[in-house]
C-alpha cells in the first residue's frame, strides 16, 4: 500500500484493534481510519503525504500552515 506516489488516507477493516493500529502505524498516509472512511474532525489535522499535498488544514496544526511567526522586541526605556 505504501508503494504509491500518493498518501492521503487509508482505511483498515478488522475487529482487532491491535491489528488495526499496527497496520495504521506502518502506513505512509496523512490520515488513517479504522472501520470507517471519510470522517473529518476539526480537532485533527487533515494532511497528505508524498504527492497528496503540502501542509495541513483543520486543527492547530492546520492553522500554522497559514501564519508566519513574528517576534517584536520593544525597548520602552
Overview of the molecule:
- This protein has helices at residues 17-26, 59-64, and strands spanning 6-7, 9-12, 31-34, 46-47, 49-50, 56-57.
- It has 77 residues and is an alpha+beta fold.
- It has one domain.
- The chain has a two-stranded antiparallel sheet with strand order 1-5. A two-stranded parallel ribbon has the order 2-3.
Short recap of the structure:
One of its GO terms (molecular function) is oxidoreductase activity, acting on the aldehyde or oxo group of donors, NAD or NADP as acceptor. This protein is α+β, with helices and mostly antiparallel strands.
**Outline type:** elongated
Give the biggest sheet.
Answer: 2 strands, antiparallel
Query: What is the chain-wise order of helices and strands?
Result: EEHEEEEH
Oligomer: single chain
| Helix-and-strand structural type | alpha+beta
Uncertain segments are none
Q: Kindly state the number of beta strands.
A: 6
| Strand order across the largest sheet | 1-5
Report strand %.
Answer: 15-25%
The structural domain count equals: 1
End-to-end Cα distance, whole Å, is 61 Å
Taking all Cα atoms into account, the compactness measure Rg is 18 Å
- Give the fraction of residues assigned to helices: 10-25%
| Number of helical elements | 2
Mean pLDDT metric: 88
